[in-house]
Amino acid sequence: MSRYSFGYLSSLLFHLYIYGCATALREVRLWVPEAVRSGHAVKLACDYDLEEAALYSIKWYRGDQEFYRYVPKESPPTRVFALPGIHVDISTSDAREVTLLDVQRQLTDFYKCEVSADAPLFHTEIKSAYMTVVGEYALPFDLLD
Fold first, then answer.
1. How many CB atoms neighbour CB 137 within 10 A?
2. Integer Cα distance of 78 and 20 in angstroms
């Protein structure tokens, strides 16, 4: 084997390890109900596997506007951003779940969860799902809860 091919192979293996195998973030799963009754609370959940990396942040968005952030290294770790119609229950929201109180029809939209692993790579993954807020009597019973 020539020196060139050994050097190339070593570099390739190093990059595969750093950028391929050591992802530090995988299996991000989002749970957002397809439909929820107007006036009710709703829990949105984002589950993830950081492998052995530390969590840098969790960010929640309605459309492209951030409304909730969890950063474990900050004090306090939670931060709520004012967004019309969004009322976050901070007492039941954390690194994996966020609870919205008294949702109204205008909150029908895409909701996104952005998970970022800590340094040195800061791998980030975003998942999104659509939630419809409907009137009190608009849902069949089998779609509720």
1. 7
2. 31
Q: Is residue 81 predicted with pLDDT exceeding 80?
A: yes
Helix/strand/coil percentages in the chain, nearest 5: 20, 40, 40
List, in order of start, the domains of the chain with CATH numbers: 24-138 (2.60.40.10)
Does pLDDT of 123 surpass 80? yes
The Cα–Cα gap between 50 and 1 comes to: 38
Beta strands, E only, the chain: 26-31, 35-37, 42-49, 55-62, 65-70, 78-80, 97-100, 109-117, 124-134
Is the pLDDT assigned to residue 34 strictly greater than 70?
Answer: yes
Is it true that the peptide bond before 84 is cis, omega within 30 degrees of 0?
no
Whether residue 12 contacts residue 5, with contact meaning beta carbons closer than 8 Å, is answered with no
